[in-house]
Amino acid sequence: MAISSKQRAELRAEAHHLSAMVHVGQHGLTDALRQSVDDALRTHELVKIQLTGNAATDPKQAANDLAQALGADVVQVIGKTATLFRENPELERKDGAPPWRR
Q1: Cα dihedral 26, 58, 5, 12 sign
Q2: How many structural domains are present in the chain?
């Protein structure tokens, strides 16, 4: 299920304050990296990914590849930073706050 443009705008605003949780190095999109992103999405739903300067991957292409492989949505790609979102209905929410605000 794709997110609406309004949801995307709200998530972009939320993501502005987040730090990158996953860093893509020179080896690119490895299975271990996909697993790290999958784990981060499962526990936080909204995840920033930083591609290093020497990563041999186009940031937009990398974000789209990861999103497709993990069933997530690309919120935005700015420079070498991508933000992905995947809702986890099983995740416990404290006082209704989203998990990335903890």
Answers
A1: positive
A2: 1
